[in-house]
Amino acid sequence: VDKRSIAVDLGGTHVRTAVSDESLHLAGRTDAPTLLELGPEGIIDQIVRQARQSVSESGVSWSQVQTLVVGAPGPLDATSGVMLNPPNLPGWENVPLRLSLEAELEIPVKVANDANAAALGEFYFGAGRGNRNLVYITVSTGIGGGVVVEGRLVEGASGTAGEIGHTTIDRYGPVCKCGNKGCLEVIASGTAIARRFREGLAAGERSIVTEWVDGDLATSADVARGAQQGDRFALALFTDAAEAVGFGVVNCIHLFNPDVIAIGGGVTKAGRLLFEPIQRVVEQYALAVPRNVVRIVQAELEEDVGLIGAAALSWTHSRVAW
Ligand SMILES: [Zn+2]
């Protein structure tokens, strides 16, 4: 038979599903706002409904469907398919997503970290096309990552590889939600930029950003806009965050010697404001031999990245979770 799999991108704002063949062509796409108010059971029902809709709209039969792969926000245990306590899905704590979906749909299910899935999507169809070694970093509400080495996604012994957001940038830094101090995520994510902006104002900093938004409500996009308009505090803060990402990038260059580092997520909308400090740190701190080969670029796939990544994972033989 002509095999198919179901790809699911479960996010804090959208649930997307599609049916994929082994060439990663997607059919029967669905896209709906995540029904956060219904909690885990309601959202699992939503996934099941959209998955069934994808199968019927793509015109394949259920006997062709081999697997379902969900890219989901961490932290999660990819081996058991249990969602631990994802900040982007309030009320989810130790939810056995894999078992619940398998019980409903009666096909094998794999749950993967969304950033790992996205890395594979960028590798096949985005910024990594034609390369063998890629690091993907998403700078968004949080900071996540995924690593492809010699054409294979690095999942690690328990499926948690690539957690660049929780690598230590400043061991005396602020406390991260993971419990450690000075993780990249607590210094440079969109949430962190907004928090640091509020803290600065409370400590007496002044900013033109407060001319258009209450300082307590300012987002990282507001801080970026202030920086672009020459606001001293906003520019210093955003540059510091971008440099922290730059140190994360240097660490990845030294660890993996990648062909390409693709950076995605909402904070990349700041463009040069983010990428120039990263480039500067890389030029100053990265070893010359791996630095001379690596391209540091904007990720290309935007909102499709999770779905394509989940589809790619369906056809990747994995030691984990089957
Ligand atoms: Zn952390």
From the alpha-carbon coordinates, what is the Rg to the nearest angstrom?
Answer: 20 Å
Query: In percent, how helical is the residue content?
Result: 25-40%
Number-wise, the strands total 12
Structural class: alpha/beta
Characterize the overall form.
globular
Main β-sheet, in a few words?
Answer: 5 strands, mixed
List low-confidence stretches.
318-322
In what range is the share of β-strand residues?
15-25%
Distance between the termini: 21 Å
Spatial strand order of the main sheet: 3-2-1-4-7
Average pLDDT, rounded to a whole number, is 94
SS element count, helices = 10
Bound molecules: zinc ion
User: Helix and strand string, N-terminal first?
Assistant: EEEHEEEHEHEEEHHHHEHHEH
Structure summarized in a few sentences:
The chain is 38% helix and 20% strand. The chain has helices at residues 39-58, 97-105, 114-125, 184-188, 190-202, 220-228, 232-256, 272-285, 288-291, 305-314, and strands at 4-10, 14-20, 26-33, 65-72, 76-77, 82-83, 109-113, 134-139, 143-149, 152-153, 260-264, 295-298.
